[in-house]
Amino acid sequence: MNDIVLIAGTRPEIIKMAPIVKAFQNNSIPFVFVHCGQHYDYNMSQQFIEELGLPEPDYGFKIKVYSPCVQTSRIIMILGRLMEKVKPRLVLVEGDTNGVLASALAAVKLDVPVGHVEAGLRSFDLRMPEEHNRRLVDHASTYLFAPTDRARKNLERESVWGKIYVTGNTVIDAVMQHLPIAEKKSTILEKIRFKEFALVTAHRTENVDDPVVLRNLVESFVEAPVPIVYPLHPRTRKRLRQHKLWRNFVSAENVQILPPLGYFDFLLLMKGCRMIITDSGGLQEEATAPNLRKPVLVTRLSTERPEAVENGFAKVVGVDKHGILDAIERTLEGKFDFPQFSPYGDGNAGSKIVGIVLEELNAGNIESANSLQ
Ligand code: UD1
Ligand code: UDP
Question: Would the pTM count as exceeding 0.90?
Answer without folding.
Answer: yes
